[in-house]
């Protein structure tokens, strides 16, 4: 049957599906932010060295997260396409091979990090007590990395199938466990030993274990998509399928790693202008997250629904979903833009009572408000490109913007034109505007709707 003869859902049904997917993602992000805030607050009560030790260690674990987020994206794309084509055999095979390969790879990485933790921490020139606590935290938290990889894969394939409620529930369970165990072990409550930074690491790893077990149960219980497949045959690797998944996902991994490296370099640059500048920057980022959380949901929705339309070989359905996703993104972003632009001092005042930080942070929020809509629409377009299998395009957009615009202009404007931290923020706005234009160009050039069959089948 040709695409034109297919029955499409009405606009109301399309919107219901879109927002039914986006709302759980937003709630999941809020849960993650809240748990992170509480964990940081607890660690902060044990001293500045503990906070710094966790921060250094997380730079290493973020890179591992970025790698397996990329692998999970490859699984998301193929799962969405198989789900859209109603090819349940291929869907199960994609999940199987993504899980198997991820578990094997992450175990190798975890062992490397555990036995060479001192080598990785010394990248940051840490010494004395900071070095010792960072190594201790990284060694303990490394045992949670295999479970982190499993959770990312489970969430990725479920989102590809349009199920975002289950990852949200898993995140809720994981964050509750993390906060409770961390509280007991950091401070030594209810008879538990007082472990300080080590307690925070145990809480994180244990929460990841619980999250992974719940995720695996979701897939393999009798009503799950992988029901009945957990036997000896499950552990057979298929090189071709794994290669396809990793080729699809690695550009997303590199895209995330680009961000991590850029963040480190910009943080070091901003520190040149003093603690107030860094505080305004960090709090500004936290305030801006109010706008960015819905954008993440719209981007994931674009990946899932475009991928499903491609699997179903239905270009008109893909276009209808994208039209509503872009409209929704612009409407919701306009609300947050209004808050950031017209009430920046009130927003900053919620986060701090330091007048100098508020005054500087207001400038950040007003600059970022100008480019929020371009930034979030670009995220949707890049999500659609991923769903169509063009995962290299968002990587090119991010890499070009970060390395050719954001970083060089940040150094030039802040140091050579004496704009100081304001120069860094101006460079960020230039980068976001540039990436919006580049994303639009690539989206139009790829013309994803002419490829209404899975990426791996293209000549």
Structure description:
This protein has helices spanning 11-44, 48-84, 88-115, 117-121, 128-142, 145-160, 165-187, 197-220, 239-271, 275-311, 315-342, 344-351, 355-370, 372-387, 392-416, 421-446. The chain contains 16 helices and no strands. Multidrug efflux pump. Pfam families: MatE. Its main location: membrane. The chain crosses the membrane at residues 21-43, 63-85, 97-115, 135-158, 170-192, 198-220, 257-280, 292-312, 324-344, 364-384, 396-417, 423-443.
Primary descriptors:
single chain, 459 residues, mainly alpha, 16 helices, xenobiotic transmembrane transporter activity, transmembrane helix, MdtK-like
Output the radius of gyration.
22 Å
> What is the rounded distance between the termini?
22 Å
Poorly predicted runs of 5 or more residues: none
Q: How many separate structural domains?
A: 2
User: How are helices and strands ordered from N to C?
Assistant: HHHHHHHHHHHHHHHH
Total count of helical runs of at least 4 residues:
16
- Average pLDDT, to the nearest integer? 87
The coarse overall form would be globular
Strands, total number: 0
Main β-sheet, in a few words?
Answer: none
Question: Helix share of residues?
Answer: over 70%
Strand content: under 5%
Structural class: mainly alpha
Compact overview of the structure:
One of its GO terms (cellular component) is plasma membrane. This is Probable multidrug resistance protein NorM. With 459 residues, this protein is an all-alpha fold.
């Amino acid at each position: 049957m040709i695409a034109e003869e297919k029955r499409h859902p009405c606009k109301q049904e399309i919107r219901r599906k879109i927002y039914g997917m986006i709302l759980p993602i937003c709630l999941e992000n809020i849960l993650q932010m809240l748990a992170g805030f509480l964990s940081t607050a607890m660690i902060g009560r044990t001293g500045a060295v503990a906070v710094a030790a966790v921060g250094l260690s997380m730079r290493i674990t973020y890179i591992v997260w970025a790698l397996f987020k990329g692998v999970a994206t490859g699984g998301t794309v193929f799962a969405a396409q198989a789900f859209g084509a109603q090819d349940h055999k291929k869907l199960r095979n994609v999940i199987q091979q993504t899980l198997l390969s991820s578990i094997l790879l992450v175990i190798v990485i975890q062992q490397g990090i555990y036995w060479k933790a001192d080598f990785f921490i010394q990248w940051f020139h840490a010494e004395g007590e900071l070095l010792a606590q960072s190594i201790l935290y990284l060694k303990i938290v490394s045992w949670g990395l295999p479970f982190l990889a499993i959770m990312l894969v489970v969430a990725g394939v479920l989102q590809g199938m349009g199920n975002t409620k289950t990852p949200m529930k898993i995140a809720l369970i994981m964050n509750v466990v993390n906060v409770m165990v961390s509280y007991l072990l950091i401070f030594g409550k209810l008879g538990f030993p007082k472990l300080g930074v080590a307690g925070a690491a145990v809480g994180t790893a244990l929460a990841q274990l619980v999250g992974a077990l719940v995720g695996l149960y979701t897939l393999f219980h009798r009503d799950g998509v992988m029901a009945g497949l957990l036997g000896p045959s499950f552990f057979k690797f298929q090189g071709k399928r794994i290669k396809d998944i990793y080729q699809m996902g690695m550009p997303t991994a590199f895209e995330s790693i680009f961000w991590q490296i850029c963040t480190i370099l910009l943080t070091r640059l901003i520190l040149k202008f003093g603690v107030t500048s860094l505080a305004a920057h960090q709090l500004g980022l936290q305030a801006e997250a109010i706008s960015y959380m819905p954008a993440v949901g719209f981007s994931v929705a674009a990946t899932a629904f475009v991928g499903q339309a491609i699997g179903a070989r239905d270009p008109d359905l893909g276009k209808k979903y994208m039209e509503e996703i872009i409209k929704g993104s612009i409407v919701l972003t306009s609300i947050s833009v209004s808050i950031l632009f017209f009430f920046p001092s009130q927003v900053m005042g919620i986060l701090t009572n330091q007048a100098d930080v508020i005054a500087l942070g207001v400038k950040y929020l007003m600059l970022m408000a100008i480019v929020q809509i371009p930034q979030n629409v670009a995220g949707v377009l890049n999500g659609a490109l991923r769903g169509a299998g063009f995962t290299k395009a968002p990587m090119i957009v991010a890499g070009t913007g970060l390395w050719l615009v954001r970083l060089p202009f940040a150094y030039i404007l802040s140091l050579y034109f004496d704009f100081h931290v304001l120069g860094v923020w101006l460079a960020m706005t230039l980068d976001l505007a540039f990436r919006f234009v580049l994303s639009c160009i690539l989206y139009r050039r790829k013309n994803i709707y002419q490829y209404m069959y899975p990426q791996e089948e293209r000549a």
